[in-house]
Amino acid sequence: MNLLTRRIFLKNSFLSSVILLTCSGELFGAVTPTQTLGVLHKDLFPSSSFIPSVKFINANLYLNKIFVHSRVSDEDKEFIRDGVKWLNEEAVVKYKKVYANLSPKKRQKVLQEIVDTDWGESWLQNIMMYMMEAMLGDPIYGGNGGELGWKWLNHKAGVPRPTKAYL
User: Fold this and answer.
1) CA Rg, the chain, in Å?
2) pLDDT band at 51 (very low <50, low <70, confident <90, very high)
3) Rounded to an integer, what is the distance from CA 17 to the centroid of its chain?
4) Which of 7, 62, 107, 116 could make an SS bond with 143 (beta carbons 3.0 to 4.6 A apart)?
5) What are phi and psi of 26, to 5 degrees?
């Protein structure tokens, strides 16, 4: 997909929007999905000598492409959007802070609690699936910066590799 200008990209981009959070019927705060997902990615895939750094995975850039892709259903896009909002709402209800502003220990507690909800386990599986795609897919799709995911697995890319993104 050819994005004509940065303005169109940002206009279509979910990750550049702001989520307004309420607590007890009053406006509590605002957070961008990028902030929330960036911290969530670090929580789900902490950097180590075994796993490439989240900054090289580029999962947020990859998710931006998913949100403008015509073959990803509107329901799937809405579920990801809602999940980011619900995660922050859970954090606000429990700790009076948005997810990204919690300590690592409190973030893990929030994640453990949402896994037991109707939406939480499915949403986290969805997010992890996109993170794995970003980490292990061809870099032409925006993830796997410097082919670190492939290097991590000692993977040799198949030939021919894509010459343009089919997203």
Assistant:
1) 17
2) low
3) 14
4) 62
5) -115, 150
Burial code (b: 16+ CB inside 10 Å, e: under 16) for 2-31 equals eeeeeeeeeeebbbeeebebeeeeeebbeb
The tens digit of pLDDT for each residue in 83-112 reads 998 999 999 889 988 899 999 999 999 999
| Tokens matching residue 64 | 């931006």
Positive or negative, the CA dihedral 83, 89, 94, 97 is positive
CA distance 167 to 34: 20
Question: Residue 76's CB: how many other CB atoms inside 10 A?
Answer: 13
- The pTM of the full predicted model, rounded to 2 decimals, is 0.77
Helix (H/G/I), strand (E/B), else coil: 19: strand
Cα–Cα distances in Å, from 4 out to 17, 59, 71?
Answer: 19, 22, 19
SS3 category, 87: helix
Contact 114, 137 (CB under 8 A): no
**Alpha helix (H) ranges present in 13-147?**
33-44, 54-57, 59-68, 74-95, 104-115, 120-136
